[in-house]
Design brief:
218 residues, alpha+beta, 2 domains, globular, AbiEii
């Protein structure tokens, strides 16, 4: 008997929450699966211990909160909540429910996971969201994700290019100013097939993002 992968467990829990939201509202929930886990499934570059569920309707966010959902509270009573985001801390991982609309023209591909038809965000959409929404809070995982997508599918970076300039300077500056900490965090990443080094990832980020830095920032 095969053991379930962590992402399968987390996605199964998320699907339970989504199904409950559908029952409670009587309406379909518009959602997609994105973030590092999707890149892991696509690139097998590193392990991911959380999943990112993106919903388009902010009014539905409360349905995923342990404050208001028996299904969510049965999963965990450890969570963070804001006006646009809920993070559920589970024993073996995390589920992030994020309010965000698509950025690129063709953001999804539809695939079958856990016998369900699921909108999986394309790599270009994932990079666009990472850079647009939190590129000013760069992490070592973000750096590896960015470089891995560039190495395997540079067209995805080009497709995400309209959303790179907002935080390109901050992304590169954080890597430069926190290089020792970032390098240690990079080394601690549970890598799978990726052979990229920290310095290689920094070189890729510099090469790709430096042209998107504003003249003011330069």
């Amino acid at each position: 008997m095969e053991t379930e992968a962590l992402w399968e467990i987390l996605l199964g829990n998320a699907l339970t929450l989504i199904d409950d939201a559908v029952r409670r509202t009587g309406q379909p929930v518009d959602w997609s699966l994105g973030g590092g886990t999707v890149l892991m499934l696509r690139l097998n570059h590193r392990q991911s211990k959380d999943i990112d569920i993106f919903i388009s309707d902010q009014q539905l966010l409360g349905l995923f909160s342990p404050r208001l959902s028996d299904f969510a509270s049965a999963l965990t009573d450890d969570y963070d909540e804001s006006s646009g985001h809920i993070k559920l801390f589970l024993p073996r991982g995390e589920i992030d429910i994020v309010v965000a609309t698509p950025l690129i023209e063709t953001p999804y591909e539809t695939v079958t996971l856990l016998s369900r038809s699921i909108k999986l965000e394309r790599s270009a959409e994932i990079i666009a969201k990472k850079m647009w929404h939190r590129g000013d809070r760069a992490t070592a995982r973000d750096l590896l994700d960015f470089a891995s997508v560039y190495e395997s599918d540079p067209k995805s970076i080009t497709e995400a290019s309209p959303f790179l300039s907002r935080h390109a300077y901050e992304f590169l500056t954080q890597i430069s100013l926190r290089q020792a900490i970032m390098s240690a965090s990079f080394d601690a990443i549970d890598k799978l097939d990726s052979t990229l080094t920290f310095s290689q990832c920094v070189e890729i980020a510099e090469m790709v993002l430096r042209p998107y830095c504003t003249p003011r920032a330069l």
